[in-house]
């Protein structure tokens, strides 16, 4: 895949054109200007929250979280005010973990001016945009070299949990997707999100470096993740630039299934779920997405959403941030079906009366080779 998507290097281009390149031209095997990251032999997996800041917003009721909260949650209220009930495990977010497995901090991670200009192309409420992109919340300041982990609120004796590596969109950060990532964790998964806002850059790739960290932590008796992770069940998912990085990460033998949000319709070598919709930045149609899925050589499915929330002309690109409740159920069902081989979750995707079927007013759905 082509590797050119550097917004900073294209200041004179139209921001929208640069955004299209950034989101949809290949994000995977590109080498950053900073070069390869040096790796310390025998680096340990330090997983404590460290200087992660306060325990969260004191105004949040027990069990209820908002962006930046580090306490256990049974529900999450999004920046747009929607309260989402979490799954049976509840969830907790642990920030700035993974010392010893740092990623190169890219210029795009720290360039606030560029990210302000970039986010403005979406035409949404500036105050809401700032909240979704904020990297200093409730006393927590993100370290772009490290990771945020979303996990079940309490480990259950004798259980291990599948691992999902997550990729942020351009200029975004994990808590911009806090509702979705907590929801997945609350279904019994451990989601490891590189804090980078430029996750398509760097060698090694941040989404794969996250799996290196997971393996080391799982084998480290001093780690809170020790023997809690099921590394035979690993998925990858990401949004926009992170979706492009997910496509490339899918070639890694550790990953067995992927979800791609708002990042094109590229062929993927593993079973995959593709999500896009009306007013997305690349202008896909249901027909073009259906044709791509039908041509897949692996089991695949798609969701094409109609009537996205928001006020901007490309608001369909922001479903995960603005209305994450539209994707939470199908996301967990995909992981349950492909990673856990759960028979009940197949009813979401298979058969003429599947849970995602016959809802054309809300979204188009199609699948290929899932049976």
Structural features, described:
The protein is α/β, with parallel strands linked by helices and 371 residues long. It has one domain (47-368): Rossmann fold, CATH 3.40.50.1820. Helix content is 23%, strand content 19%. The chain contains ten helices and 14 strands. It has helices at residues 15-24, 107-110, 112-120, 126-133, 178-186, 206-219, 241-249, 286-294, 319-322, 328-338; strands spanning 63-65, 73-77, 83-85, 92-97, 136-137, 140-141, 147-151, 161-167, 190-194, 229-239, 257-261, 272-277, 300-305, 363-368.
In short:
The protein is built from ten helices and 14 strands. With 371 residues, it is of the alpha/beta class.
Identify the notable features of this structure and list them briefly.
single chain; alpha/beta; Rossmann fold; nine-stranded mixed sheet; three-stranded mixed sheet; 23% helix; disordered N terminus
The figure for the number of domains is 1
Tell me, rounded to a whole number, the average pLDDT.
85
Rg from alpha-carbon coordinates = 19 Å
Second CATH tier, the architecture: 3-Layer(aba) Sandwich
Give me the side-by-side strand order of the main sheet. 4-7-9-8-10-11-12-13-14
Global morphology: globular
